[in-house]
Specification:
The chain is α/β, with parallel strands linked by helices. It has 13 helices and 28 strands. It has a ten-stranded parallel sheet, with helices on one face. Strands 2-4-6-8-10-12-14-16 form an eight-stranded parallel sheet. A five-stranded antiparallel sheet has the order 19-20-21-23-22. Helix 11 packs across helix 12. The chain is globular and about 60 Å long.
Amino acid sequence: MDLSNNKLYGEISPNWGNCPNLTSLRMSKNEITGRIPPELGKPSLLQRLDLSSNRLIGEIPKELWKMKVLSSLNLSHNQLSGRLSSEIGKLSRLEYLDLSANNLTGPIPEQLGDCFKMIYLNLGKNKFNGSIPKQMGDLISLQPLMDLSHNQLLGEIPSEIGQLRSLETLNLSHNMLSGYIPSSLKDMLSLTSIDISYNELEGPIPKIKAFEDAPTEAFTNNKALCGNAAKGLPSCNSSIIEKRDSRKKHMFIFYILFSFLSAMILLSIVVGIACLFQRKAKKKIEMGQTERIDQGDLFAICNYDGRVVHENIIEATENFDDKHCIGKGGYGSVYKATLSTGQLVAVKLYPLQEDADMMNTKHFTNEIRALTEIRHRNIVKFYGFCSHARHSFLVYEYLVRGSLAKILGNVERATELDWIKRTNVIKSVANALSYMHHDCSPPMIHRDISSSNILLDSDYEACLSDFGIARLLMSDSSNWTSLAGTYGYLAPEFAYTMRVTEKCDVYSFGVVTIETLMGRHPGELLSSLSASSLSSLESSNAHTMMLKDVLDQRLPPPTTKVYGALISILKMAFTCLNVNPQCRPTMKHVSQELLPYTEFGIFY
């Protein structure tokens, strides 16, 4: 229900809570007054709520923090007051949060860091006080914006903010922040815009592009920033740097002494307890009892035991019996394993064959090297590996819906993958590739983007998998390589130049995008199109295409709004298929173009 951009007045009726199938409610840019009715938290399917730009007052009802599937919440530009509840951490699916331009007070709850899917966060123009929680560094999916400006925040900028390596815009201006800018911010390579003006910050600014390219206004009205003469800042003399280093040294000594004393006290307690339970533990060992973790995550650091995990996997797969096999590829087979904890994992077994031993080993070690370097919500989670004389295997997160190729190949499952879900799959893959190409140093090229290597979880969230032939794009290397990848997805120039670039992934992404919308591989369509046809499809006349010949006929026709989004996505996909690699967009550009398209509502 979209009632935005009208002149509606009066209060929001609590009867909206009697609409159990409501998934999206928008009432922004009206003249609505009164309080937000708690009943809005009742619809169990509500995924998007936008009440921005009205005249709402009072506190945010605690019932809103119980909406388990809420992905987008916009209450900005109202007159809301009170504290932001720590219950917000329960919104595990929240991607978009805008509470700016209100009168919210109190500290920013550290539980906000539990919203690990958060992509966009704006808390600016409120009255938040206290320090910035270090848990904000856990919001590693943040991409276009984190705005905490125009509040009453004080203390130092937590070093954990440097973990937000996908973040593009950071605004901390108009607060009372003090101390030095943490050196960890130099790792925020995706950062394109920064504003730290009107604080009490001092010391050198990080030497990264975002700070170097920022306008002078981004640094004004601070205590004693230095390091960029072009921005009107003085050079950092040795006394400033020595002062900062001396402060760090004193704090370091303090923490060492404090930790030592605490450790001695703790050790005394532990020794006492150990003595009491020593006999009991020894008796259990002699009886041959092997304690096992009955619940939880076997791969958690506190639980992890490599030998136990290995034995669990061998037992769960019955020594890799074929009945547990869920897929086979060129370099090995994938097995489904249910561990003793109940945890499901996928195990990729690399059999040792005399004629392919070296190639399997290279693929095996390459995938380990790649997956230990990267962490992203749209890249399959890597748990660990085993290298053994009899067998070598990798252990991944198990994604219950399997590969995109298998879903599209099944009529019933393809019908469940509606236009919104397919749009979200495309967006997720673009985000993963943007991260690999632009946020990793050195950049990483996947080289085998195909529908078989895109896996979906229970919420249809897509993850890239199979990094066995991935390559680091080295600036001092020619990056020549042998022909590798999946036929039908390879960029045309790769076959004759044998030189790998990020534009090879861009081409493959274009093929996957069209395949996702068509429901089948677009080989016939691509071969029937000349270069001139591709150019016309990239133009504004792309809507003249007969979409009935392109879109998957197994789905109902899209609504007008979705139809327009699919046209835009299709146009973008064909730019990725340009014969000239230099004319293809970057994945960062593609990811930004797809940003408005969300899992639940097409547009933010």
